[in-house]
Amino acid sequence: MASRLFPLDALRAVAAQLIVLHHLSVYGPIAEAMHALFPSLTGWLYDYGRMAVQVFLVLGGYLSARALSAQEPQLHRSAPALLAQRYWRLVPPFMAAVGLTLLASWLVEPLLPELVPADIHLTQILAHALLLHDLMSVESLTVGAWYVAIDFQLFALLVLVMWGLRCLPLRRTARRWLAPAVVGALCAASLLKFNRMAALDAYAIYFFGAYGLGVLLCWCQGWTPAARRAGLLALGGLMAAALALQFRERLVVAALTAAIIAGWRRGALPGWFQRHGQAPVQTLARHAYALFLVHFPVCLLVNALYEHRAESPAPMLDALAPLALLTAWGLSNAAAVPFHRWIEAPLLRWRPSAAALPARVAVR
Questions:
Q1: Which of 358, 304, 361 has its CA nearest to residue 331?
Q2: pTM (two decimals)
Q3: Residue 270: domain span
């Protein structure tokens, strides 16, 4: 099983690293110095690093479909528990990271006032805890906060679709094909219409094209070979139509992610890599959410230390920029380990009880 899921782990690990590097190319004096020194590299990270989010969207849809399909027979009873579990999976670690970011912001405000929230109030914190910050148009307290809210919205939308179909008096065979049809329609609506409307980027439907692609890809893998080929061709045709209607590089990243997952075959890894390389990749993947949450306060602190040396001669200061970036990147990965071990993992163990859920269901 580990080998079969390896491409998902590898994609998650790489995408998390790209997100960190993207933010290091966007925020603070380190980013400014790096743009002056290496404009092509940092320009690429600035423009394209953020598209790694599309990888998370496709993977999120795939893993959610995998978990919910196992739960489908009891979905009419377990839907609230599944939503509670997903909320607990996302929000308590997120709010812990918000607390760390606010602490780092307080420390660096004298040096980097432009990188800290202008004002912090209780409503703003509650909006983040309820994942309503973008819907209420309040200032974000940390980078990436929008994605946590969108992740929950997308999962809730998928649960709503599957729960609604489960409540209908349909035969199992009819429901089995109706679910992909409904999700496919939502996916098509997002890709062809709603994803082209930037004003909707605080809502799940804007991102459901990539997320639904992962869902449908997961379901396709359980079909007969002929049906699977037809499903994959239909998905390819839908992506081609969406790109022909309006070329969006983010959709290319989503399509490539899906293609890697669909094209993966068991045993594709060389024996030496399975023995020595697979475990580190899986470790990076396991810490990906922790890294996503904790890297920004680390980047704030390293940027503040770099700015504190502003009295140094400009050439010397510029020479320190690559080292500062690598330091922030390395410390972010290092900080993700204790954050996962002491905050994220314990919170997962303390998540709300869901006795109705079979043990094999784990919403990742």
A1: 304
A2: 0.93
A3: 6-349
Number of H helices, E strands in the chain: 16, 0
Would you say residue 1 has pLDDT above 70? no
Query: In which residue are the tokens 């999976």 written?
Result: 89
pLDDT in tens, 182-219: 999 999 999 999 999 999 999 999 999 999 999 999 99
238: exposed, middle or buried (Cβ count in 10 Å: 0-12, 13-18, 19+): buried
Q: Which residues contact 21 (CB under 8 A, 6 or more apart)?
A: 45, 49, 329
Q: Which residues contact 169 (CB under 8 A, 6 or more apart)?
A: none
Q: Tell me how far apart the alpha carbons of residues 101 and 357 are, in angstroms, rounded to a whole number.
A: 34
Structure tokens at 333: 């990965």
Would you say residue 360 lies in a domain?
A: no
316 in helix, strand or coil? helix
Residue at token pair 């309006």: 246
DSSP symbols for 111-165: T-GGGS-S---HHHHHHHHTT-TTTTTPPPSSTTHHHHHHHHHHHHHHHHHHHHH
What the block records as the tokens of 215 is 């869902």
Q: Which residue is listed with tokens 């925020």?
A: 27
**130 is a domain residue:** yes
Answer whether residue 238 is part of any domain.
yes
Say which residue the tokens 């504190």 belong to.
308
Asked if residues 179 and 158 have their Cβ atoms less than 8 Å apart, the reply is: no
Label residue 361 by pLDDT band (50, 70, 90).
very low
With contact defined as beta carbons under 8 Å apart, do 324 and 30 qualify? yes
Alpha-carbon distance of 151 to 147, in angstroms, equals 6
CA 18, CA 2: separation in Å to the nearest integer? 23
Mean of the pLDDT values across residues 104-123? 93
The two tokens of residue 81 are: 């528990």
143: left (phi over 0), alpha (psi -120 to 50) or beta: beta
Cα torsion 113, 116, 122, 126 to 10°: value is 170
Residue 89, domain member (yes or no): yes
pLDDT digits (tens, 9 = 90+) for 232-281: 999 999 999 999 999 999 999 999 999 999 988 765 666 667 666 788 99
Q: What is the C-alpha separation between 363 and 65, in angstroms, rounded?
A: 9
